[in-house]
Amino acid sequence: MKKTLAIWSAWAIVWSSFALVDGVLYEVLLNSFEAIPQELDDILDYGTIRLTRQGKNQLGVSGSFSILQNAGSETQQMFINGRGSLCEIVAKDEVIYPHLLESSNLPPQDSCPFPKGNYTIYNYVMDEQRLPPAVPASEWIIETLLSRDGKIGAGFRINFTTK
C-alpha cells in the first residue's frame, strides 16, 4: 500500500520551533497550532506532542507521540528542498535531526525504515544559529499531512507571523 507523506508531522513541529534570540534578524509570533482531524487511525497517535513556550522569545517542542507503522522508502516527503523518501531526507538532514536526537529517544539517523514506536521529545529548542539570517516579514502557514489513498492519517496546521 503506497503511503504519501507531505511533510512529516514531527518535522514541521520542530521546524516551527524557531528560537528567537539575539542575532536573529526577525521575530516569530505563533498565531495558532492545531491538529488536523484524522480519517485514519493507524498511522500516528498525536499523544501529548506540543509547542511549548521555553522563554519570553523561545518556542520548543515537548511531549510523546506514537508512530503506528514503519515508514521507509515507500513513504514520500515533500519538503522545502524537494521530494524524497523519508529515509533519504532523515539521513541527509544536517539541521534538525542530529540535534533532535540529543533531546529525544528517536531512532538513529540511519534507521530505515523509520520504526514504529513510542517517542518522546524533551524540551527541544532549535539552535538559532541554524536558522537563515533573515526571513521575509509575512504571515506563514505550515501544514503537515500524512495520508494514504487520499485519506488523512495525521496532520498539523501551524500559523505564525515573522516580523
Structural summary, described in words:
This is MD-2-related lipid-recognition domain-containing protein. It holds the Pfam family DUF1091. InterPro entries: DUF1091. It comes from Anopheles culicifacies. The chain has 163 residues and is mainly β. The protein has one domain (26-162): Ganglioside M2 Activator Protein, Chain: A. It is built from 3 helices and 10 strands. The strands form 2 sheets. A 6-stranded mixed beta sheet has the order 2-10-9-1-6-7. Strands 3, 4, 5 and 8 form a 4-stranded antiparallel beta sheet that branches. β4 and β5 form a beta hairpin. The longest helix is centred in the N-terminal third of the chain and has 7 residues, at 9-15. Mean pLDDT is 74; it is low at 1-8 and 17-22.
Please give the share of residues in helix: 10-25%
Largest sheet: 6 strands, mixed
Strands, count: 10
- How are the strands of the biggest sheet laid out side by side? 2-10-9-1-6-7
Class inferred from helices and paired strands: mainly beta
Q: What form results from the Cα inertia axes?
A: globular
Treating each run of at least 4 consecutive H or I residues as one helix, how many helices?
Answer: 3
Number of domains: 1
CATH class: Mainly Beta
> Distance N terminus to C terminus?
43 Å
Write down the CATH topology.
Ganglioside M2 Activator Protein, Chain: A
Mean pLDDT: 74
Task: Please give the radius of gyration in angstroms.
Answer: 15 Å
Order of helices and strands: EHEEEEEEHHEEE
**Percentage of residues in DSSP E strands:** 35-45%
User: What are the segments in which pLDDT stays under 50 over at least 5 consecutive residues?
Assistant: 1-8, 17-22
- The CATH architecture can be given as Distorted Sandwich
